[in-house]
Amino acid sequence: MEVAADQARGGFGRRAGRVSEHRLRRVTPRSRIHPGERRDVQGSGGVGGQAGKGTGDYTITTPDHTSRTFDSSGQLTSVVDAAGKGLSLTYVSGELASVKDATGCTTTFTTGTDGLLSKVSLPDGTSVSYGYTDGLLTSVTDPAGKTSSYAYDANKRLSSYTDPEGGKVTNVYDATGRITSQTDQSGKTTTFTWDGDRESHTTAPDGGVWTDVYSGNVLMETIDPYGKSITYDYDRHLRPVDITDQRGNTTSMTYDSAGRMLTRSAPSSLGNSESWTCDAAGNVTGHTDGRGNKTAYAYSSSNQLTTTTDPQGGKTAYRYTSLGAIATVTTPRGRVTEYGYDAAGNRTSVTTPLGEKATFIYDKAGRILSKTDPHGNAAGADPAAHTTTYTYGGRGLLSSATDPLGRTTIYKYNGAEQLTSASVAYTYDDGRTSTMTAEARPPAVGGLGVWGAVGHGRAPFRAVSMSPAPPWRPARRPQRLPRGQGSARTALPQRGNKESQSGAGCRWRLGGWCHVEGNSTGLPVAGGAFPRTGRGVLPHRDPRTRRLDGTGPAGCGAGLRGQGRGRPVRASLRGLERFLR
């Protein structure tokens, strides 16, 4: 028996279907499963495992303990996890009508007289609608009312996709129906060529060529634009047993009869090997790392992880809610972290072993609306003073985030739902507001930049991006970084705390107190005082002592400097670049 979907026609038209359309079907007339019997099944779309027959239905359980149940006609009726929680599906006249999750939230599906899906109504009251021409999907209208369109060539192959903002992706095919080029919304083209059935070549917009080598549709080798390759060897079940990287180092794997990995050996030059053991249900019960350290795992009767014992003998315990979500985690020292949830299964609270509690509120779509930190949940505290709030657009994308200090970040997207800009508004002690805009994407490779604000209040100074060749110049003399380290331009302050336009939509406020935030290292960020006259340095704040040590990681303390009124802020790319990476 096998699990498969109709490759010719699905709920979205020709060759366009849904996972729910996978059906259990016989491969041969002798494919039979009797009640209580279990057999292996092969599947498409990642579905496969052990099949068993109940009273009028069939259940397939995959190695990760996900169970899919099919009715007597082969239609999928439920998908549940190891704890028995998941999705239930209902049908009307053979067409999918609804899907209900473990919390009772229901998504409904409307099918037209042509048998094609015309509308999906979501639990939050919004919907997505679909349009067709000659059985081909030609339009999708999202919850915001914005429409994406699809066009096809004479052979009914997708020739173009146009996003809601008018951006177009186009495809070109050869006589055999294989794609030869694709041009994205920005006009960049990727081309594809084949050498028979064994090799494919992908040329990126930058000219780099990637080559894949196949044998019987199985990937055997990948060659990058520099001529370096990764090779693969498989066992008879097409499980990778040897992978050799670009440097010639080979990693080897072995498996048990159920396809679970038993060992993985690092390249011979290292000599490390790790191994796993499993119980009869397929749960990993032990792991030995390359140094011989052993970790043990124990499970409940419903295959939920209950304890982890580390190499030193320390035991971490896990407890779950009735819906299978983690309720508590207890460390080897007996310290307990607790998690709370709402009726929809969203995590609404996290309480640390010290009793500090952070809380969260969600909308009907499961999107977070607000987050209150532990200070806001302390006795006698004002929660609003410690709460970050979030709003979303019609397409479900984050549109704004307002932190406890009243600073609001506005997010904008293009038709492909890619973030294009983030505007941050700051309110100062004198009641004035400054807005700064940063590119959502980094500039050219090797670029780094500085933008920010300094005011009487705790206005942040952020380092995010810099173009080595800035496209703008200020009204006064420019501020440069040292030779060979890139260059930057900063706006010069006017009187007091007046803001001045710099460029690329960025505004600066200079003078008063400065606080630095935002980095990719996970460390607390630097902060320091900027006097109205003289020079101030932004030192690093030590994460352990919470004191300013005056230097910072990789010399970042000398990375940002401020001068007196009427003088520019100075940035050092050398220290700042290493700090951000």
TrEMBL record:
Keywords: Repeat. InterPro entries: RHS_repeat, T6SS_VgrG/RHS, TEN-like_YD-shell, YD. Residues 1-72, 181-204, 465-504, 525-567 are annotated as: Disordered. It comes from the Bacteria. Signal peptide: none annotated. Residues 43-55, 552-565 have a biased composition (Gly residues). Residues 539-549 have a biased composition (Basic and acidic residues). NCBIfam families: YD_repeat_2x. This is YD repeat-containing protein.
